[in-house]
Amino acid sequence: MSYLRISVLLWFSGWAALCLAQPDVEKQWQSRLILAEDGETVELPAGRFELTNTLWLDGKRSVTLRGAGAERTVLSFRGQKQGAEGLKITNASDIVVEGLTLEDSRGDLLKAQQVNGLTLRDLTAQWTGKPRKTNGSYALYPVQCQRVRIERCTAIGASDAGIYVGQSDSVWVTECLAHHNVAGIEIENTTNAWVWNNTARDNTGGILIFDLPDLPKKRGGRVLVWKNHVLHNNHKNFAPRGNIVAKVPPGTGIMVLATRQVEIAENTVLHNRTAPTAIVSYYIAQTPIQDKEYSPYPADVYLHGNTYSADKCRPTWRHRLGFLLWLKFGRRPPRIVYDGIADPSAPYARICLQQNANGSFANVKAAQGFKNITTDCTPHDCSLPLLPRPE
Amino acid sequence: MTALYRFCPGPNRLCLAALASMAALMLLAAFSRPDAPPKPKQRLSEYGFFIGPLADLQPAEGVFAYTVNAALFSDYAEKARFIALPEGARMGFRPNGPFDFPVGSFIIKNFFYFNDGRKPELGRRIVETRLLMRETNGWKALTYVWNAEQTDALLEVAGAELPIAWTDASGKRRTLSYQAPNLNQCKGCHATDGHIVPIGVSAEQLHRNGTPDGSPLERWSAEGRLEGADANTLAAITPLADYENPNLPLDARARAYLHANCAHCHNPRGPASTSGLFLEATQTDPMRLGIGKPPVAAGRGSGNRKYSIAPGKPHESILLYRMEQDDPGIRMPELGRQLPHREGIELIRQWIRHMPM
Q1: Pairing of β B78-84 and β B58-59
Q2: Same structural domain for residues B281 and B310?
Q3: What does the radius of gyration of chain B's CA atoms come to, in whole angstroms?
Q4: pLDDT of residue B33
Q5: What's the average model confidence in pLDDT over A206-224?
Q6: Residue B78 shares a structural domain with residue B197
Q7: Is A167 on the interface with B (CB under 8 A)?
Q8: Which B residues, 303 through 342, put their C-beta within 8 Å of a C-beta on chain A?
Q9: How many domains does chain A have?
Q10: Which of A28, A56, A63, A82 to mutate to test the interface with B (most CBs of B within 10 A)?
């Protein structure tokens, strides 16, 4: 009896101590990040920690932030009061973050800006519960970074993109899993990116390669999307309107928007109901373009050796493109959809297709009001030089 | 020693002695440099910025007050601002961006609330004092949190959360969990190209015409505190409007408000350069200002609205939506604002409403 009482008492007091200690833990960790010496490894212990403020690492070199594993060290930002991110890393070089779970921040879960050399490894970044439009925007969000490696990470529930790399150069995304986001993996205005061996499933769109106007870093390109599994990306689009991804139709596998030099090779793209692969210009977004340096056309896109599913499916009715495809093709929509809007000064934008299993094609001629849709792919029977493979 | 032997091969004692004396001289020089950078202190009182009771904020010799034309809104906190220059040193005028400051300078900003905003004579509570300290290789930001007795303030590296209650100017009782920033959060606003810089000590914020005392820049030049600001230079400055003055043109007030409250991040070299939304008072490109500009990575910050600014339609403008919200993932500015600034929101609403469509 007394043993039971003592153990209950101990359990309660331990629990109470943990609850009381949390603001101190938060302050202590933030102090450690501020005072970290270059080259230091900051270890975060196992446990579940409720944080109310952004944890922020700034201006450091060669600092590693290491948890006890994604299952064991969990940082929840459910009660966040200040700061738009969970973990933020800025103006730094050679930073490693590994073995952690980040949850339920108000804005992004992990944002890294102006970091030269960033490795995110064995992380889980998620909004718990059902996918909701009140979830934050990006789970893992490096922007204006160089030499980014994202390995063995999981991103769940982002109301914009699970793994989003923007305005960066030299990027690896590999062995990651993105599910129940609006966009699984998005590479935007980024050069030299390798996205391979990932799984993007049950998002609205699986893998998006975008170039957008009005940004400091103007042009992306040289993006390899290779050997990924892009499955069942049919989720309802729950992005807040105004954002470009709010326009992505449910049922999108891989989408290339206005980007050049993109190679999409040897991916397995199954059961994405509307557009398993879409190659489109920025005009499809129907947003006026004022950026004079911006080119809204995709070009030099090479799709080869991909495998698509042969089964019947009905394109979504929740999106104009899906509805049009359904009207035209019924339950056998093309697996590769091109909007057909090419640069008038270079009408032969090279969109090349080779040896895609079940890779039926349609040019929907969006500029002509989707009226002269053609499935003739002879203009696209070409090949392009391969992009370098990751080593 | 191996390095020494490399310079002085063989048993050349004279050479060794010469090197040793050189090293000693260098050491001596390092310790007695007149512009040796200041060190952060644990207590605000240790700097000696103020004379008399600390809470009276009476500047000591070499410390002087300044005010800005358009203030950053910080949860209705009042501010008392000072500059401390090393003896005999001057600030260097610059037409754009913050002035140059000699090593050893401080910029001092005290945040306080009147107990009763209708009757300032009933006293105030100083919450925190932020310092920008000019070191040899740049600026350092430091935050000091005041004790309840108002006798001193202590250095806080990781920030602090402080419950505050006061009566505002309209007589309403208000409470707030005041957030003193951590060192990185200081940089969240005070960063250009990733380095800490001052914001308010710039020509457009400090220069003003038609005040009884003349421009502070003229006064400081005459007092030997500022160099490089002659009459021609001053004439070329376009001061920011006082956005609280309803007699000034709406556009000038709104642009001054955005400059003071947004442009420290929203400029091409600031932390919000990723957004492509640039709100400096000198910005002339309508797209950069957000007019008809779709968001980039706003996520749910867009509030289902399509453009940063939809002319004539404040209720369709993301910029206004983010000013109104208090969710940390949506609100703007991201840091240092928990309460919506009603007067600022109203100003920007009017500005967008009157914008030609």
Answers
A1: unpaired
A2: yes
A3: 24
A4: 46
A5: 93
A6: yes
A7: yes
A8: 303-307, 318, 327-330, 334-335, 338
A9: 1
A10: A82
Beta strand segments in B115-193, E: 124-135, 138-146, 153-155, 160-167, 173-180, 191-192
- Residue B184 at interface with chain A, using a CB cutoff of 8 Å: yes
B137 and B180 co-located in one domain:
yes
Question: Is residue B16 domain-shared with residue B133, that is, in the same domain?
Answer: no
| Token pair in block for residue B292 | 């008809």
Cβ-based contacts of B190 with chain A (< 8 Å): none
CB of B51 less than 8 A from some CB of A: no
- How far is residue B45 from each of residues B14, B60, B113, B146, B154, measured CA to CA in Å? 51, 12, 20, 11, 9
CA A226 to chain centre: 15
CA distance B276 to A245: 18
B326 CA to chain A: closest CA distance, Å? 10
**Tokens representing B93?**
């005028």
Taking the C-alpha atoms of residue B243 and residue B156, their distance in angstroms, rounded to an integer, is 33
CA distance B226 to B230: 10
ipTM of the complex: 0.75
- Check B194 against A114: CB less than 8 A apart: yes
A243 touches chain B (CB under 8 A): yes
- Looking at B232, B265, B280, the residue that finishes a domain is B232
- B223 assigned to some structural domain: yes
Share of chain A above pLDDT 70, in %: 93
Tell me whether B209 touches chain A (CB under 8 Å).
no
Partner B, chain A 188-227, Cβ-Cβ below 8 Å: 212, 214-216
Mean pLDDT is lowest, of A170-179, A270-279, A286-295, B103-112, for A286-295
**B290 inside 8 A of chain A by CB:** no
Within a domain: residue B38? no
The C-alpha angle with vertex A289 and arms to A203 and A207, in degrees rounded to 5, equals 20
Range of the domain at A306: 127-380
Q: Which pair of structure tokens corresponds to residue B71? A: 């203030």
Task: Decide if A83 is inside a domain.
Answer: no
Residue B11 structural domain: 2-31
Judge if B162 and B85 occupy the same domain.
Answer: yes
A286 touches chain B (CB under 8 A): no
Q: Smallest Cβ distance to A107: which of B179, B305, B329?
A: B329
Strands A73-76 and A82-103: parallel
